[in-house]
Design brief:
There is one protein chain. By secondary structure, the chain is mainly alpha-helical. The protein is 69% helix and 8% strand. It has a two-stranded antiparallel ribbon. The longest helix is centred in the C-terminal third of the chain and has 30 residues.
Length: 129
């Protein structure tokens, strides 16, 4: 059968076959949508993600982190780390490096500090806006 009649339109379904949709039903849909007040449509719309969800999730994760930190005695473990010995070992190893390497490390350290200060200033500038 021919689907090119003036009162019918072609439409593809999910399976790929072509079905005819009468223009009268399309026109009825358009007229029905024209009479729906925009206030009714806008009144029912709510955001999908609210700030309450964000803050509740943040509070939940913070509480879980604090609980896990306490249960695993991380403060006690950190107190057992021999910081003085580690610094002494690092100092001995740093003295064995060639001068060019130490100079490059110092330059990189200064540049990183400068970039860090600039980034913090930029963040504060945007927070004030």
């Amino acid at each position: 059968s021919s689907l090119s009649c003036s009162h019918q339109r072609r439409r593809r379904t999910r399976q790929g076959s072509i079905t005819a949709v009468p223009r009268a039903s399309m026109a009825f849909r358009m007229i029905a949508l024209a009479f729906v007040p925009p206030a009714l449509v806008a009144a029912d719309m709510k955001p999908l993600i609210t700030t309450d969800l964000f803050y509740a999730t943040s509070d939940l994760l913070t509480g879980a982190f604090n609980h896990a930190w306490t249960l695993s005695c991380v403060d006690g473990l950190l107190a057992q780390v021999p910081v003085a010995e580690i610094k002494k070992t690092i100092s001995v190893q740093m003295k064995q490096l060639p001068p060019d390497v130490t100079k490059t490390l110092e330059t990189v350290s200064v540049e990183a500090s400068t970039k860090s200060v600039q980034l913090k200033a930029l963040a504060l500038e945007f927070m004030d806006v």
